Amino acid sequence: MSKRETYTVNVAGLTRHFPLFEVAPGVRIAIFNMLGDTYVVKASAAALAERLKDTPADVLVTAEAKSIPLIYEMSALMGLPYVVLRKTYKSYMGDVINAETVSITTGKSQILYLDEKDQALIRGRQVIVVDDVISTGSTLEGMKKVVNAAGGKITQVAAVFTEGDADWSHVVALGNLPVFVS
Amino acid sequence: MSKRETYTVNVAGLTRHFPLFEVAPGVRIAIFNMLGDTYVVKASAAALAERLKDTPADVLVTAEAKSIPLIYEMSALMGLPYVVLRKTYKSYMGDVINAETVSITTGKSQILYLDEKDQALIRGRQVIVVDDVISTGSTLEGMKKVVNAAGGKITQVAAVFTEGDADWSHVVALGNLPVFVS
């Protein structure tokens, strides 16, 4: 099958066609990239903010880069600050807290860094962890490690999509993406 | 002087204290990081959108990551799509167009990648290039190279801040940051 084959999905009331991409021999996933899709970000952020309105929270946390517009829009709607964990250390970040994770879309291990300036936003606070897609859960584990190491308490995990047939009942999500195995 | 010394700035009507950071012996810059500051993003995007309202444009283009919330908010206000040039190649990006640039905050050369899916948004279109800070102009040069190689025509460059005393009269900006030389 060609890489251009797509999977049609409803995202917060909007219809999108995600390209299918082979991540391992015979295993394909649907690529959801919110970067550049302002309509999907607006709609998804509103739907997630509504579902999270009774969740105790002081701050939202995600990892760069595709979910940055989502967490920004959720921050504005929910009146909460947000923190972006970075994937490249830059010296202006100072004394960071970090954790290692493995990306399903690159297959490489990566490190998540919490900027020194953002640590006070998490220490002793209630945290909602946000991502665009939660798949293997490895980025999620990395984010949890960083939040815990920074002294935050995770009250909820939220994503636009979960992926695959693991038990995702603990995640507030707008939908589930299948993993295509041939 | 300590790294924690700050420089006080007016950003689109809001007051902020940017930490000063030494980037070369005796040379310090004020670090402006919009990631996580929803108030500054809202205010800056509105001010830039107003100044750009008569500029012919089909699409906004930036480079990841700090300016992603800004370009997203400008996209929503201006009713234009936006494209984020990435700094790491991921295989789902397909047949990318790229260009090399050097970051002032890391001192390292980096490559900007235009995702295959975004190329049609730029080819033959009028483009406003957006950044948080335009400093050495090297990231700007990288973005220009990518847009030109993709067949886009740059009609304006816009930033929240320019930095240093170069001639920035061709940039639509909300302010200028000094470079501190001791």
Written account of the structure:
2 copies of one chain form a homodimer. Chain A has one domain (34-175): Rossmann fold. With 182 residues, chain A is α/β, with parallel strands linked by helices. Helices cover 23% and strands 39% of the residues of chain A. The first copy, chain A, has a 5-stranded parallel β-sheet, with helices on both faces. A 4-stranded antiparallel β-sheet of chain A has the order 1-2-3-11, covered by helices on one side. A two-stranded antiparallel sheet of chain A has the order 6-7. At the A-B interface, helix 1, helix 2 and strand 5 of A face helix 1, helix 2 and strand 5 of B.
Structure summarized in a few sentences:
2 copies of one chain form a homodimer. Chain A has a single domain (34-175), classed as Rossmann fold (3-Layer(aba) Sandwich).
